[in-house]
Amino acid sequence: MFEVVIGLEVHVQLNTKTKLFCSCATSFDEEPNSNTCPTCLALPGALPVVNKEAVIKAMRLGYAINATVNKVSNFDRKSYFYPDSPMAYQITQLYKAIVKDGELFIKNSKGEKKRVTIYQAHLEADAGKSMHEGNISKVDLNRAGTPLLEIVSGPDMRSADEAVEYLKKLHSLVRYLDISDANMQEGSFRCDVNVSIRPNGQKEYGTRVEIKNINSFRFVKQAIDYEVERQIEAYEDGVYEDEVWQETRLFDSDKCETKSMRGKEDSADYRYFPDPDLRPLVVTDEMIAEAKKIPELPDAKVERYVNELKIKEVDALIITADKELANYFEEIISADVTPKNAVTWLTSELLGRLNKSGIEITDSPVEAKTLATLIARIEDGTVSGKGAKDVLDYLMQNSSDVDSVIEELGLKQVSDDGAILEIIDTIIAANDDKVAEYKSGKDKLFGFFVGQVMKASKGSANPQKVNELLKQRLS
Ligand code: ADP
Ligand code: MG
Ligand code: ZN
Q: Is the shortest distance between the CB of 205 and ligand 1 below 6 Å?
């Protein structure tokens, strides 16, 4: 049997207004090469100046993962030529990164808490984009110089599921910290996956293969599954040394397989050296204070939801995984409805409907305030749970307010004691015989009376009230 070993390098695009070393905008859908200047075009004589906002955002991540945030760090040049990288090197941090030795906690497959080491998180500049059309290749440098934070984990994950858990946790974290929109389709959160295997009991790690630039959780899992199988097969066929070597592979999501791209360079190949254009990066106390402004994070929220709101941990985990969802939930709760009902109506009812239509919570046609009102109307007996589902269906399609919809759909429950008692008395009067039987001990007849009252009210009587009042009258 084999053990799988996985380490992840995640590139997070920081959501700063301007690039890492110049004042060009970081906006994307612009005319190609319009967001450029002598610095990000690498024209001779142009000098980089580091973006304070990017540094603070990197530091904020550092504090959130209990890392050491270095007061002094350095920028280095990683030399390589690529048409979309006009400097012929990338400015990054190799020897002394701004964030060192952090940690992130995930749940492993057994549901136990597991610590993942984060070696470091360093700032670096993104490259531009090459576009290939037939025989022509074009280069757009709008993205060149955009700030990235590369977050490097230790080789601590032991399965594809753990790797995905870690990524989801990190994804959620950078969104909570508001340091990145982490949009995976647009490439603001992409990851390189390092995978190796070793026979159970072996101390040394096996040879690792790096799979580059995967931009969905599902692809990460598929790529790892494929790669693990390939490596195990090679081992069992006695050709591990020949077929598994330190290289960079690409994941082909159509074929669901990884294939060789190039041999993995050793860091010597990149001729790293300190960037002579950039002085050491020294952070000020003011920057530290700014970076330490950290909102309540998912782990703390889960604890608070479970302990104070008495919500089940599974539910708390679902709600807090997404910052927007947690915000939505907290807005419902602030309207004084019971947390348990808020959970049900948010996760089963609203999310169920949104998922079906492929709508994000942020674009929900039903706002938190509205859902809170609906829940309040269930709790005060104005509408039944069943009726409320119809109201929600209606509100998914039409904008209106809860009370008008309840009225319009004729779903208002009669909760008024007088009105219900009137019906009860008519039913009791018309069923002397049954009343006598009930009083002589035939308890089962209670259901009959409830049914009759509900029927007479055409389903509009509040069933709880009917139960209560019937018990009174029949006792
Ligand atoms: P390099 O300097 O060559 O990029 P690092 O030591 O920085 O190598 O590691 C890069 C990534 O590869 C890290 O995320 C690390 O956890 C992971 N890694 C290192 N060794 C292994 C291994 N044997 N199996 C899986 N992942 C590994
Ligand atoms: Mg590396
Ligand atoms: Zn620029």
A: yes
